[in-house]
Amino acid sequence: MSRMSKDVQKLVGHNARRLRIAAGLSQAEVAIKMGVDRAYVSGLELGQRNATIVSLWHFSQALGIKVGDLFEEEKKHKTAR
User: Fold this and answer.
1) More exposed terminus of the chain, fewer Cβ within 10 Å: N or C?
2) pLDDT digits (tens), the chain, 81 positions
3) pTM for this structure?
4) Domain of 34: which CATH number?
5) Longest Cα pair distance anywhere in the chain, in angstroms?
6) Domains in the chain, number
Protein backbone atom coordinates (compact mmCIF):
# COMPACT_ATOMS: atom_id res chain seq x y z
CA MET A 1 0.00 0.00 0.00
CA SER A 2 1.32 3.42 -0.90
CA ARG A 3 2.22 6.06 1.64
CA MET A 4 -0.54 8.32 0.32
CA SER A 5 -3.13 5.57 0.90
CA LYS A 6 -1.91 5.14 4.47
CA ASP A 7 -2.07 8.91 5.03
CA VAL A 8 -5.70 8.98 3.84
CA GLN A 9 -6.57 6.07 6.13
CA LYS A 10 -5.01 7.92 9.07
CA LEU A 11 -6.84 11.15 8.18
CA VAL A 12 -10.19 9.36 7.92
CA GLY A 13 -9.50 7.48 11.14
CA HIS A 14 -8.58 10.63 13.05
CA ASN A 15 -11.69 12.42 11.79
CA ALA A 16 -13.91 9.41 12.48
CA ARG A 17 -12.82 9.33 16.12
CA ARG A 18 -13.03 13.10 16.56
CA LEU A 19 -16.50 13.30 15.01
CA ARG A 20 -17.76 10.25 16.93
CA ILE A 21 -16.67 11.76 20.22
CA ALA A 22 -18.20 15.12 19.26
CA ALA A 23 -21.48 13.28 18.56
CA GLY A 24 -21.32 11.77 22.05
CA LEU A 25 -21.33 8.19 20.79
CA SER A 26 -19.25 5.21 21.86
CA GLN A 27 -17.60 2.87 19.37
CA ALA A 28 -20.13 0.22 20.38
CA GLU A 29 -23.07 2.53 19.68
CA VAL A 30 -21.72 3.42 16.24
CA ALA A 31 -21.03 -0.25 15.50
CA ILE A 32 -24.65 -1.15 16.33
CA LYS A 33 -25.95 1.62 14.07
CA MET A 34 -23.62 0.43 11.27
CA GLY A 35 -24.35 -3.28 11.76
CA VAL A 36 -20.67 -4.14 12.33
CA ASP A 37 -18.44 -5.26 15.19
CA ARG A 38 -17.03 -2.66 17.58
CA ALA A 39 -13.57 -3.87 16.52
CA TYR A 40 -14.34 -2.69 12.98
CA VAL A 41 -15.03 0.84 14.22
CA SER A 42 -11.85 0.72 16.29
CA GLY A 43 -9.79 -0.38 13.26
CA LEU A 44 -11.33 2.39 11.17
CA GLU A 45 -10.47 5.02 13.78
CA LEU A 46 -6.91 3.71 14.11
CA GLY A 47 -6.41 3.97 10.34
CA GLN A 48 -5.96 0.22 10.06
CA ARG A 49 -9.00 -0.37 7.85
CA ASN A 50 -9.20 0.39 4.16
CA ALA A 51 -12.92 1.10 4.41
CA THR A 52 -15.23 0.90 1.43
CA ILE A 53 -17.32 3.87 0.42
CA VAL A 54 -20.37 1.94 1.66
CA SER A 55 -18.80 1.54 5.12
CA LEU A 56 -17.91 5.22 5.22
CA TRP A 57 -21.48 6.06 4.19
CA HIS A 58 -22.85 3.88 7.01
CA PHE A 59 -20.45 5.53 9.46
CA SER A 60 -21.52 9.01 8.35
CA GLN A 61 -25.20 8.06 8.64
CA ALA A 62 -24.60 6.74 12.16
CA LEU A 63 -23.12 10.11 13.16
CA GLY A 64 -25.43 12.32 11.10
CA ILE A 65 -22.54 13.84 9.13
CA LYS A 66 -21.55 14.06 5.46
CA VAL A 67 -19.13 11.45 4.11
CA GLY A 68 -16.88 14.32 3.00
CA ASP A 69 -16.44 15.39 6.62
CA LEU A 70 -14.26 12.31 7.11
CA PHE A 71 -11.77 13.62 4.53
CA GLU A 72 -11.47 17.20 5.77
CA GLU A 73 -8.06 18.28 6.98
CA GLU A 74 -8.14 20.23 10.21
CA LYS A 75 -7.60 23.92 9.78
CA LYS A 76 -4.48 25.35 11.35
CA HIS A 77 -5.23 28.24 13.68
CA LYS A 78 -3.38 31.44 12.91
CA THR A 79 -1.81 33.18 15.87
CA ALA A 80 -2.66 36.83 16.44
CA ARG A 81 0.12 39.28 15.81
Assistant:
1) C
2) 678 778 999 999 999 999 999 999 999 999 999 999 999 999 999 999 999 999 999 999 999 999 999 999 976 545 554
3) 0.85
4) 1.10.260.40
5) 49
6) 1
